[in-house]
Amino acid sequence: MAPRASWKGYLKLSLVSCPVAMFPATTASERISFNTLNRDTGNRLKQLMVDSVTEDVVEREDRVRGYEFAKGNYVTVEDEDLDKVQLESSHTIDITEFVPESEIDTVFLDGTHYLAPDDKVGEEAFAVIREAMKKKKVVGLGKLILNRRERIVALSPRGKGILMTNVHYKYEVREDDAYFDDIGDVKISEEMLDLAEHIIDKKKGKFDPERFEDRYENALIEMLRAKQQGVEITAPKQERPSNVVNLMDALRRSIESEKGAKAGKDEPARRPAEKSKAHTAKGAAAKTTKKSVAQKPARKRASG
Q: Domain count of the chain?
């Protein structure tokens, strides 16, 4: 079942528009989460807002926004003040221009949502906009007002729908000069570059998120299961890569290790009985691991 739409409005291109619904493309709801407890009683704690000087608890109705314009000096901002600067919202994503996808610096992108038609009548207009962008190989840039603020969004075709990605404003992105200017201009020999390129060629693959395992999440699950069962757990040994003393030697050894790994894959097949036995053991181990990871501990118990 698809999640509820987080926003509904219209997608507009010039005089063409259609009703759309927006859905979050990612979720963290499946991650292990923790509550904060009283160590002595085991009861869950509540967060309270406390006056920094009097240390009195301040109730919600007595709280107000404040902007610090000088050290320790604030100007208060009420809801009515924010209403006066609120932009007029037409609940419309207005596509203002189209740019090649390669021209968008990825550092400006953050947060993704799915856009889908909100009714059958608007499907044709939605499909026209989507297919035109796909054919021209461009990304649409549009404006959207969410939570009082105007946001810039990038729209790109994705299957039968459209992927909407938030675009940061220029002032929100840090310049990289402060971080990269002190990196020296290193002269690299052709031989070392060739060796590095050779390693890259050997490790080339296709992006497949199915291959990525959240090892920390799985370790959390196993740790919580062990604590529920009263089993003692030990921390794994932390291994750090050694400092590279001779870069050329390290590159050559990297290639040799790759060759050794490939030779291991190409070794002669085991005898039928031996191969069958090993395959059965491997399959049983894989099933056990997958089953233990899939059975997460109960959320309430995990949280408390």
A: 2
What's the pLDDT tens digit per position in 95-123? 999 999 889 999 999 999 999 999 898 89
Lowest mean pLDDT among 80-89, 123-132, 143-152, 255-264: 255-264
**Structural domain harbouring 256:** 187-200+247-260
- Claim to verify: residue 121 and residue 192 sit in the same structural domain: no
Alpha carbon distance 103, 140 (integer Å):
12
Q: Residue 118: CB partners within 8 Å, gap ≥ 6? A: 5, 8, 18, 19, 20, 21
Q: Which two tokens stand for residue 125?
A: 């207009």
Whether 115 and 12 share a structural domain: yes
In terms of domains, do 92 and 147 share one? yes
Q: Which domain CATH number covers 107? A: 2.40.290.10
State the residue for tokens 């971080």.
179
**pTM beyond cutoff 0.70:** no
Q: What is the pLDDT of residues 171-190, one digit of tens each?
A: 999 999 889 888 988 888 88
To the nearest 10°, report the CA torsion of 153, 156, 157, 163: -40
Answer yes or no: do 112 and 160 share one domain.
yes
